[in-house]
Amino acid sequence: MNKSRLVLTLKSFTPEELKRLGEFLNSPYFNKSKTLVKFYSELKKSYPEFPEEKISKEILYRKLFKDKEYNEQVMKNLISDLNKLCRDFLTVEITRADSFENRLNFLRQMILRKTDPVFFSELKNFETELKKTSEISERNFYYLYQLEEAKISFHLERNQQPLVFDKVLRSGEYLILFFLLHLTKQFPTLTSTSNHSMQLMRPIFPKYSSTMLTWNP
Residues 83-111: pLDDT tens digits? Predict the structure, then answer.
């Protein structure tokens, strides 16, 4: 157990993350198995080292099922289910930490649900926020590109193909700006570590300059 994927994942958690994982597992929306919650509680007692003599499958099984005969398949299922829920928990944590990605996913849902007023309101707010900054940012260009893609999806879902053309052009422009800015930042590293990379880059940047681009939203 000590070298299992589940335990290696739990070892990587901070105490605060373990606490939130416990709350996650206790939510009926994510998990309905009380045995799984108990399994996690017993396993967590050995954090952070998780010594094998305390978390062997046989020992944990006795703590969970008392005098019942050991069942390997039951333990495999518990480990697999908890491992999956740990991945789900981390996915939720990552998503919550990225407000831009959250808002983009919300827009995509509004497209599919055909809640057009909500879509346009959120789109306007998001776009305004991205464009109001004077900072040159790969992240901003990337999400401006994604917003144009969302507009394209919106019109295609509603059979409004004639309204797509200008969005396709702007989408391409933002994607190119994202690519150029990213490449400009990575170019010194590429050229210092690989002659092959430098040869590939020369047709794109024959005379490399670190001069920053001007952001004109």
Answer: 999 999 999 999 888 999 999 999 999 99
Q: For residue 40, how many other CB atoms are within 10 A of its CB?
A: 23
Helix (H) or strand (E) holding 30: none
> Residue 35 corresponds to which tokens in the numbers above?
């045995």
Would residue 14 be called left, alpha or beta, if left means φ above 0 and alpha means ψ between -120 and 50 degrees?
A: beta
CA distance 124 to 127: 5
d(Cα 167, Cα 173) in Å, to the nearest integer? 10
Over the range 41-61, which residues count as b (16 or more CB within 10 Å of their CB) and which as e? ebbbebeeebeeeebebeebb
Which pTM was predicted?
A: 0.74
> What are the residues whose beta carbons fall under 8 Å from the beta carbon of 38, sequence distance 6 or more?
64
pLDDT digits (tens, 9 = 90+) for 30-68: 999 999 999 999 999 999 999 999 999 999 999 999 989
Find, among 104, 139, 140, the residue nearest to 122 by Cα: 104
Backbone angles phi, psi at 89, to 5 degrees: -60, -45
Helices (H), 70-202: 72-97, 99-113, 116-131, 138-157, 165-193, 195-201
